[in-house]
Amino acid sequence: MTPQDTATGVLQNAAAEPARGAVARFLDSWPPTVLAALAWIGGMVFVALFADSLAPYPYTALDLRARLSPPVFIGGDWRHILGSDELGRDVLSRLIVSIRMSVLIAFGATVISAVLGTSLGLLAAHFRGRIEQVVLALVDFQASMPFLIIALSVLAFFGNALPLFIALMGFHGWERYARIARGLTIAANEQGYANAVRQLGAGAARIYGLHVLPNIASTLIVTMTLTFPEIILLESGLSFLGLGVQPPMTSLGNMVGYGREYITRAPWIMLSPATAIVLTTLSISLVGDWLRDRLDPTLR
Amino acid sequence: MLRYLLSRLLRAALTIVAVVTFAFVVLRLSGDPALLIMSVDAPPEAIEAFRAAWGLDRPLWEQYIRYFLQVAQGNLGQSMRDGRPALTVVLERVPETLALTLPAFATKLLIGIPAGVYAALNRNRLADRLTMVLSVAGFTVPSFVLALLLVLIFAVNLGWLPSGGAESWRHAILPVITLGLSGAAILARFTRSAMLEVLGQPYIRAASAKGLPWRRVITDHALPNAAIPTVTIIGFMVGSLVAGAVVVESVFSWPGVGRLLVVAVANRDLAIVQTILLLVAFTMVCANLVVDMLYGWIDPRLRTARTQGA
Amino acid sequence: MNALLVARDLVRHYPVRTGLFRRPLRLRAVDGVSFVLPPARTLALVGESGCGKTTTAKLVLGLIPATSGEVTFAGEPLPAPHTSAWRAARRRMQMIYQDPLGALDRRLTVLSQVMEPLAIHGIGTKPERRERALALLDAVGLQPHLADRYPHELSGGQRQRVVLARALILEPALIVADEPVSALDVSIQAQVLNLFEDLQARFGVAYLFISHDLKVVRQVAHEVAVMYLGRIVEQGPPEALFRDPAHPYTRALVSAIPVVRRRAGRERIVLQGDPPNPIALPSGCAFHPRCPVAVATCRHETPALKPWHDGRLVACHVAHGEAALPQAA
To answer: What is the pTM of this model?
Structure first.
């Protein structure tokens, strides 16, 4: 080999190295499981937004000649890709609409919970004294009772109209935001940046709006990824028991509840919503864990 | 130490007061308690007697006090279905629920803690990763899905175990496994992170540098220190057991308190709902108190009273 | 000369609950402190942790109310904390702390944080504020390319400079500095202290400088006040204090300063006894349990802060020769 060949060879190898390094580095900071989880979440959001156009049939449409037909990969036909239920309703369509309902409820409830908890936490940290004692007592109360029991009691007494139900779900987990917001705000107020800016003469709006909230936002977002799947589980549990989302509206838990009676003859009715629930909570938990590691490696 | 216990007792009492107040407020907000609590076909004299006992025509604060007294005496109204006292109906079902929750609790501890410890000790090796994957599955699969899957596999397809009812001990296997597994997963995860945190402490390295065999380091130093945060989660687990029992009993048609609650909510049998709410609150408060005392005993930092320095 | 800051008999007590049924004890954080700070001069408060220096600083700034006594700033009493008058007064008095990283918002650039006080008080337009902030960053010795960095990207010394720039941008008359160099490496300390002096010469700002470290204080202070358990025990020019400490506590502090060459005749004085507890103040002179030259009078009578023969203020019976012959030390 001539020196020129060797040189070209070396140069070519050198050019190939950075490309592989870039892919490896990309996968390091974005692990494949997290990418898959994000893709699933993206899919769920997409389905939730475009449910009406995606569903092949209206979710209440009956098809009495094709009752309990199995999904297409177990011997059914393409008219009902994921099978049909005891009234001939298309499982895929119901699944799509259920996803929208469950995602909507969980999203609304998470936002309510976050806003409620953060506000109370900030109030407690800002005013201290009596107000803080009251907020802490409420946090204690919420944390000491299993929320399912409280939710059931409220549902028994007040019924389960959808807005009330979402508001009720919004009371799950607020105490976590309150604790975090209060703790971080107190630290900022005592010796930290919030205190320094107050020293400069800033008013409360500037301190909390421009400084405290942006700083605690990342921790709160990680908490949201924790409570979001819990709310999905809670809502589907309640709907499964027949106490949550009521027919004719449908949610993932609802579907599993109906599918339960046909578990021997037509398990697919129950399995597709169950899979959706598991994969969605799994994805959000994975993303939440990864976010937490990324945002603050000292927190484990 | 005494001060710690007293403050915990005070806290427990306050929580009970809060729950009773909550029940009172919710009850009064949702209609006429007399009609809600007494069954529909109760004789008018009974309803009147109820009104008198609860003081429903008196000022609100007096009703509140009377409500407290009624609750303390166990007079919580009658079940709408059969007219029997609500407290009796609920207490009857408690043994059935305990038959599930106690074995499930044991299962959680016996599977979860060793799994977590083992995973922490073999960090990042296959055992650890496998345990973590399983525990994540346990956390993300809701109990009703797990229950139905188990029924599908073991009752429907394999026919080994019955799928519902409570006739024999074999009927209890699937419910106990369902309740125990999901909790065990969370406990394993938590124990693992507690152990990892302890193992990363300098005093572990110091103990090992002293020449202690690694096994002794674990049993004498790591485990006792990791036990402290783990104890705090046990109180939380009691709560999740109660909540889990509601779902599992419904799936397996197990005649316990959980199933009773679901039926009562569906039928708006408010006397039962109220009774269960108060009973659960009382149980939780006791459980948390026990945990707090355990915590105060285990953690030597709380055992000795300290006066503040300068 | 007219004084900028006057503190008269400042007292701050905290009630401390020791149990459910016992009467609250009193923590005497500050127990009768008076001083006068002229404009563009530096007064240093020195003492161990728990002696009341930080509490005095907070009283002087009006952050906490005094139990008794008064503080006058530029001839006027201080407004109540967190009112709009108080916020407006911030323009003339500022505080900087030990931990510059904690005092800075980690999400904002250094330049925007130096600009912020101007925005808070509505001074100037945005370009004008930017220009002033850049000028101040230059004044504290930070290169312009650091302006768009974030706090965690700077070193400790650089961060403290940023904090100083932010404090100075409103051109306050007084800066209270609470252990501003304690968290910095020794070599950086010297630079930052030089900066303090430069800024005083340039902007005419007065400092109330709090530290537990005598060496630091020696360089910047025009007057030093040594505090012990809430009271000033000795006050005077730093050279006099260091060369010839009058109060036994000052003597012990000075003797603890490490020197490169051991001077003949210099011994290290080690204090006996327990560190002080401001809840349970000893009777008479608060220092007497640990004092190597304490006599009977010291146990009964609290010494007053009086002028000594060279003009310094000292609070010690023995130093003023008011006691019987001292015990063999």
So the answer is: 0.79
